[in-house]
């Protein structure tokens, strides 16, 4: 069983469903609303755990009504929360509009995630004990860099999902072993990704590709009836991390299958499939 340390964001997703997403200045009528625990860090942690890894998360929630619920969801999914701190103020939120095709528009407010400004000795120990340290960019970049340096110092692989895409210090890219990007991010970060040994590019319903020391691989994706794409990329990344030790080809198959299954259910963490569900789809 792989051991994963996730250093990342934890949000409450405020999800509105509507026939189509509004244009600038337009009001449209929605058809449903729900609050769903999410955040790229939490989603990826739960996805890795459900795919079969042992997972700990380093992150922050607020003292608002969402904080306790977000912590409970992680604990209920058997994600270790020793590195989860509570800070004064609001938890992170993501306002998500999902149209009838399943495509979404997202606005993220960092909240407590922005207060994850440094790592404790206990956080560093979690990273040092892990096989892979998994991080994203919904927390301060300086903290991501600190976590990456800690991982590199202790022989822990660094998997970066550079989303939302932004300019990053060269020393962070130098510490990255594996990067997971979508096609837009791949184009935007082309020069930086050339320094990363292993790069996986997601292509929505068309699957994903890999390039690395073992050459190039492609997975065509899994045909499903798409309901909501929210969290599909995070599910891909978590499942990939959980099975990376089995080699890129196997990890890619698990990731593509998990990501596809996640689009068949509304919500982020609520849609993440179990290892048994992924295995059934792989066998079918």
TrEMBL record:
Q: Pfam families per the record?
A: PfkB
This protein's pathway: Carbohydrate metabolism; D-ribose degradation; D-ribose 5-phosphate from beta-D-ribopyranose: step 2/2
Q: Tell me where it mainly resides.
A: cytoplasm
Per the record, its GO cellular-component terms are: cytosol
Q: What is the reaction catalyzed?
A: D-ribose + ATP = D-ribose 5-phosphate + ADP + H(+)
Concerning CDD domains, the annotation shows: ribokinase
Q: Where does substrate bind?
A: 11-13, 39-43, 138, 234
Quote the record's binding site residues for K(+): 228, 230, 262, 265, 267, 271
Tell me the Gene Ontology biological-process terms attached to this UniProt entry: D-ribose catabolic process
Cofactor(s), names only, from the UniProt record: Mg(2+)
What sequence ranges are listed for the domain Carbohydrate kinase PfkB?
1-274
Q: How does the record describe its quaternary structure?
A: Homodimer.
Q: What does this protein do?
A: Catalyzes the phosphorylation of ribose at O-5 in a reaction requiring ATP and magnesium. The resulting D-ribose-5-phosphate can then be used either for sythesis of nucleotides, histidine, and tryptophan, or as a component of the pentose phosphate pathway.
What is stated as this protein's family in its record? Belongs to the carbohydrate kinase pfkB family.
Protein name from the UniProt record: Ribokinase
Q: Which organism is it from?
A: Nocardia cerradoensis
């Amino acid at each position: 069983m792989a051991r994963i340390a996730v250093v990342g964001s934890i949000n409450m997703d405020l999800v509105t469903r509507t026939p189509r997403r509004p244009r600038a200045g337009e009001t449209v009528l929605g058809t449903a609303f729900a609050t769903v625990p999410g955040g790229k860090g939490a989603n990826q942690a739960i996805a890795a755990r459900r795919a079969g890894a042992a997972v700990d998360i380093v992150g922050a929630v607020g003292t608002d009504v969402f904080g306790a619920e977000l912590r409970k969801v992680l604990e209920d999914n058997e994600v270790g929360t020793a590195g989860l701190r509570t800070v004064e103020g609001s938890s992170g939120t993501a306002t998500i509009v999902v149209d009838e095709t399943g495509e979404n528009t997202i606005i993220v407010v960092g909240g407590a995630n922005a207060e994850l400004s440094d790592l404790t000795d206990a956080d560093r120990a979690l990273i040092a004990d892990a096989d892979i340290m998994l991080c994203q960019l919904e927390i301060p970049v300086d903290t991501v860099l600190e976590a990456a340096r800690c991982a590199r110092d202790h022989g822990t692989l660094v998997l970066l999902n550079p989303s939302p895409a932004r300019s990053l210090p060269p020393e962070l890219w130098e510490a990255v072993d594996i990067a997971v990007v979508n096609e837009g991010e791949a184009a935007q970060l082309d020069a930086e990704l050339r320094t990363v040994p292993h790069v996986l590019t997601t292509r929505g319903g068309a699957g994903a590709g890999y390039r690395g020391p073992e050459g190039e691989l492609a997975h065509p994706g899994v045909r499903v009836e798409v309901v909501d794409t929210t969290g599909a990329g995070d599910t891909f990344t978590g499942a990939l991390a959980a099975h990376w030790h089995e080699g890129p080809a196997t990890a890619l198959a698990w990731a593509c299958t998990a990501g596809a299954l996640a689009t068949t259910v509304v919500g982020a963490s609520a849609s993440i499939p179990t290892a048994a569900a992924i295995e059934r789809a792989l066998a079918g």
